[in-house]
Design goal:
Number of helices: 5
Mean pLDDT: 91
Order of helices and strands: EHHEEEEHHH
Distance between the termini: 21 Å
Oligomer: single chain
């Protein structure tokens, strides 16, 4: 099972709020078999205690520490939101990456993603991706280095 696949990428999504965003990425993780349905509630619980907005238009919703035992395998789900959605940061989140990670995998993924999107040019390439496969290619090339 791959961390990222076309079934776990949605481009140019329109959302009413961050909870809809969390449910959408959470459901993609559930549908892909990374975590059970109850993990989505833990993602929302995590968001209510501490925002998962990282900065620069990126939010990375994930479950609480207690929910780690629920996770079956490491996976990411990505949605791009050109109009942005408010996650409580200085600017709206345009890139939302849902994360379910086994063990310490989440630390590596968070680091890799943060480095990838810290470059404004790479962030624009992600937001302007014309297909799910193109977005995945950007992430795969960025996360290997």
């Amino acid at each position: 099972m791959t961390i990222l696949s076309t079934e776990k990428v949605k481009l140019n999504v329109s959302l009413k709020d961050k909870y809809e965003a969390i449910r959408m990425v959470g459901q993609m993780l559930v549908d892909a078999g990374h975590a059970p349905q109850s993990y989505i509630d833990k993602m929302i619980e995590r968001e209510e205690s501490l925002s998962t907005y990282i900065g620069g238009g990126l939010a990375m919703p994930h479950g609480t520490n207690e929910s780690k035992a629920l996770i079956k395998s490491t996976g990411m789900a990505i949605i791009t939101v050109p109009a942005g959605v408010d996650f409580g940061g200085e600017e709206p989140a345009q890139l939302i990456i849902g994360l379910a990670a086994v063990g310490d995998d989440h630390l590596d993924i968070l680091t890799n993603v943060a480095v990838l999107v810290s470059e404004e040019e790479d962030m624009q390439r992600i937001l302007n991706a014309s297909s799910e496969q193109e977005l995945i290619s950007i992430f795969e090339s960025g996360m290997e280095s």
